[in-house]
Design brief:
Number of strands: 15
CATH class: Alpha Beta
Mean pLDDT: 97
Order of helices and strands: HHEEEEEHHEEEEEEEEEE
Number of domains: 1
CATH superfamily: Creatinase/methionine aminopeptidase superfamily
Distance between the termini: 31 Å
Radius of gyration: 17 Å
Strand content: 25-35%
Number of helices: 4
Shape: globular
Largest sheet: 4 strands, antiparallel
């Protein structure tokens, strides 16, 4: 069942989103060759605690960390580790912040040092895919309009769209209805209504769209070992169009 959020609930989520966005900006300053994703995870947990917030995904269905840190060919749900990042890597840091019961969810892909032109193009196309999806998050449209905008653009740039993981509603829990596909047909799926809060989070691959699962049961990676990037925002559907909960990057 899709639940519509009150203005008060949306404002609670927006306050969480401000902390989340600022945390991402601070993480961006830290990322350089030699840092580990476990250090980033530990920084995040301390940063959130400073503002009275917590990492909602820690403990969610047994997930053990404050962040998901997905490096290079890892699509999503990468476990933070002690392995140092190296020049030319990319790392997606994904987190859900809880502040006084308000949730916000966002992921950013960061370059590590100097990256290749083709890797930068993957990041640019992924971010633009998100922006094109958000532009369709308008009351009266359908969820398929979001997915179609993302898929048609990304595939037109010769990248592929991951099918196995989706965006979602968010509110009192991390995952609510509706499911937000990042591919598909315009005019299909549930209609977007004012008061809905959703995540849009395309995962775009340099090679094939299919994923495979690591032995930890969480981390998904590309089947061909090629790079994957992701950008995600939490968006409220309003009478004036899509409204960023997690701040525009």
């Amino acid at each position: 069942m899709i639940t519509l959020k009150s203005q008060r609930e949306i404002e609670l989520m927006r306050e969480a989103g401000k902390i989340l966005a600022e945390c991402h900006r601070e993480i961006a300053k830290l990322i350089k060759p030699g840092i580990t994703t476990l250090e980033i995870d530990q920084f995040t947990e301390k940063y959130l605690a400073k503002y009275g917030a917590t990492a909602e995904q820690k403990g969610y269905q047994g997930y053990p960390f404050a962040t998901c840190a997905s490096v290079n060919d890892e699509i999503c749900h990468g476990f933070p580790s002690k392995k140092p990042l190296k020049e030319g890597d990319i790392v997606t840091v994904d987190m859900v912040v809880n502040l006084n019961g308000g949730l916000a969810d966002s992921a950013w892909t960061h370059p590590v040092g100097i990256i290749s032109e083709e890797t930068q193009r993957l990041l640019d196309v992924t971010k633009e895919s998100l922006n094109r999806g958000i532009a369709k998050a308008i009351a009266g449209n359908r969820t398929g309009d979001i997915g179609h905008a993302i898929q048609s653009y990304a595939e037109g740039e010769n990248f592929s769209v991951v099918r196995d993981f989706t965006g979602h509603g968010i509110g009192k829990s991390i995952h609510e209805e509706p499911t937000i596909l990042h591919y598909g047909n315009a005019g299909k799926g549930p209609r977007l209504r004012e008061g809905m809060v959703i995540t849009i989070e395309p995962m775009i691959n340099a090679g094939k769209w299919q994923s495979k699962m690591d032995k930890n049961g969480w981390t998904a990676r590309t089947v061909d070992g090629k790079l994957s990037a992701q950008y995600e925002h939490t968006i409220a559907i309003t009478e004036n169009g899509p409204s960023f909960i997690t701040e525009e990057v």
